[in-house]
Specification:
single chain; alpha/beta; TIM Barrel; 32% helix; globular; disordered N terminus
Length: 416
C-alpha cells in the first residue's frame, strides 16, 4: 500500500509539472515568454531586447542604438551625428553649421560669413580716446575704446635695454578690460619714440630686439584687440630705424613692413593688425601710396593667416581742420576699395583762433563724415581735455570738466 501511495504521488507531481509548462508557454511560439513571437522576451516585436520595436536594442525608438532617439548615432539628440546637440552638423552647438560657435556660418570664427578669421565676435563701432597716464573720472561718460597715449610705445616700455616697464601701458589696458572696451596697442615699429640704444647696435641685433619687444608684449598681455603694427612708414614720415634690419625695401618695395606684420601675427594670432599713418585722409596721392602697401600686405600671410585687418588713418587737425564732409567721404571711398575696415585713429580738431563755435562746425563736418561712412569701424580721439592735448586747443572738455561746444554737439550727435 505504501509503495502504491508513493507511486501515485510521483505520478501527480509529473502531471502537475506538465500542466504548469502548458500554462507558461506561448500558443504559437512555445518559448515561455507569454507573447506571440519566438524571441523569448515579453514583447511582440520579434526581437530579443524586451522593448516594443523591431530594432534589437533596449529602447523604443526603432533604431539600432540605445539612446532613445530615432537616429543611429548613439547620442540622444535626435540627429544623425555624434555631437550630442540638436542639429546634424557634427559640432557641439545648435546653429546648424560646421564650426563650434553659436552662429550660422561655415567658418570657425563666429561671424556670419564662410571665412575663418582670427576673432570670435564682431567689434562694435566705437568712439574711443587715449589714456595718458591716469584715468580721468569722466572718461567712461564719453568713450568706449582705449589707446595708451605713450605708455605702450617702445621707448616708454624699454628706455633701458633689457628693462621692461609696462606700468603706463598697464593702466590703459586694465581700464579697457575692466570696462569691456576694445584696447589698441600703439605701436610696435615706428621711427619716433624708439629707444635711443637701438641706434648703437647691429642690424642682426635690431631684428632680434624688434621681435623680442613684440614677443614680450604678447606674454604680458593676453587679450589685445587691435595693434598699430607699423606707424608712419611713408617716405618723409617716420619709418623705423630698424627697417633695414627687417628686410629693407626688398622685392616688394616694403619688405620691412611685411616682416613686421608677420612677427605681429606670429605672436598675436587673434588681434586685429593695422597699419597707421598721418596725412592720408586729406591727400589722394598719399592714399594711393598707402593702398599700395596695403595690397602688398594683403597678398602675404603668416601660416595662412592674413597679415592686415584694418587701415589706420590718424586724422590730426593739421590734415582735417579745413576739410568738408564731401572731401572726407570721397577719400574714405577710395580707401574703402581695399576692402578693409578703416579706423580713424588719432582724431583732433582745432577751431579757428580757438573759437568754440568754429571747432564745433569742423567737428560737424569731419566727425560726421567719418562716423557715417560704412567702411569706418571706429574713431579714436587723441585727447579731449583742453590744455593737456598733444596739439594746443584741440580739447573739447575744459579742465574743470565743463563741456565745450564741440563736445556738447558730439554727445548729442551720438545720442549720449
Amino acid at each position: 500500500m505504501i509503495i502504491f501511495k508513493n507511486l501515485f504521488i510521483s505520478v501527480l507531481i509529473v502531471l502537475q509539472g506538465l500542466l504548469f509548462a502548458s500554462c507558461g508557454s506561448d500558443s504559437s511560439g512555445g518559448n515561455g515568454d507569454g507573447d506571440t513571437d519566438t524571441d523569448g522576451d515579453t514583447d511582440t516585436d520579434g526581437d530579443s531586447d524586451g522593448d516594443t520595436d523591431t530594432d534589437g536594442d533596449s529602447d523604443t525608438d526603432g533604431d539600432t542604438d540605445t539612446d532613445g532617439d530615432t537616429d543611429t548615432d548613439g547620442d540622444s539628440d535626435g540627429d544623425s551625428d555624434t555631437d550630442g546637440d540638436s542639429d546634424s552638423d557634427g559640432d557641439s552647438d545648435t546653429d546648424g553649421d560646421t564650426d563650434s560657435g553659436s552662429d550660422n556660418d561655415t567658418g570657425s570664427d563666429g561671424d556670419t560669413d564662410s571665412e575663418t578669421e582670427t576673432d570670435e565676435k564682431p567689434m562694435q563701432k566705437y568712439v574711443g580716446n587715449i589714456i595718458p597716464g591716469n584715468v580721468r573720472s569722466d572718461f567712461d561718460n564719453y568713450w568706449n575704446q582705449v589707446t595708451a597715449e605713450n605708455g605702450c610705445k617702445w621707448e616708454s616700455v624699454e628706455r633701458t635695454r633689457g628693462q621692461m616697464n609696462w606700468k603706463s601701458c598697464d593702466t590703459a589696458y586694465n581700464h579697457a578690460k575692466s570696462k569691456g572696451y576694445p584696447f589698441k596697442f600703439h605701436t610696435f615699429v615706428w621711427g619716433n619714440q624708439e629707444p635711443s640704444w637701438l641706434g648703437g647696435i647691429s642690424d642682426t641685433e635690431k631684428r632680434e630686439e624688434v621681435e623680442e619687444f613684440i614677443r614680450l608684449a604678447s606674454e604680458h598681455y593676453d587679450d589685445i584687440d587691435m595693434i598699430d603694427v607699423v606707424n608712419e612708414a611713408l617716405p618723409g614720415h617716420a619709418p623705423s630705424h630698424a627697417s633695414a634690419a627687417l628686410g629693407g625695401s626688398g622685392a616688394s618695395g616694403w619688405d620691412w613692413i611685411v616682416t613686421s606684420f608677420k612677427l605681429a601675427r606670429q605672436y598675436f594670432p587673434k588681434a586685429k593688425l593695422f597699419i597707421n599713418d598721418y596725412g592720408i585722409i586729406s591727400d589722394p596721392n598719399a592714399i594711393k601710396r598707402y593702398l599700395e602697401i596695403v595690397e602688398i600686405l594683403k597678398s602675404n600671410d603668416y601660416d595662412g593667416a592674413p597679415l592686415i585687418d584694418g587701415i589706420g588713418i590718424q586724422s590730426h587737425c593739421f590734415n582735417v581742420n579745413n576739410m568738408s564732409y564731401d572731401q572726407v567721404k570721397k577719400n574714405l571711398d577710395t580707401l574703402a576699395t581695399a576692402g578693409l575696415p578703416i579706423h580713424s585713429s588719432e582724431l583732433d580738431i582745432q577751431g579757428q583762433g580757438n573759437s568754440e563755435s568754429s571747432q564745433k562746425q569742423r567737428y560737424e563736418a569731419v566727425f560726421s563724415a567719418l562716423w557715417e561712412h560704412p567702411a569706418v569701424a571706429g574713431i579714436t580721439l587723441w585727447g579731449y581735455v583742453q590744455g593737456t592735448t598733444w596739439i594746443e586747443d584741440t580739447g573739447i572738455v575744459n579742465q574743470d570738466g565743463s563741456q565745450r561746444e564741440a563736445m556738447k554737439w558730439l554727445m548729442e550727435y551720438l545720442g549720449k
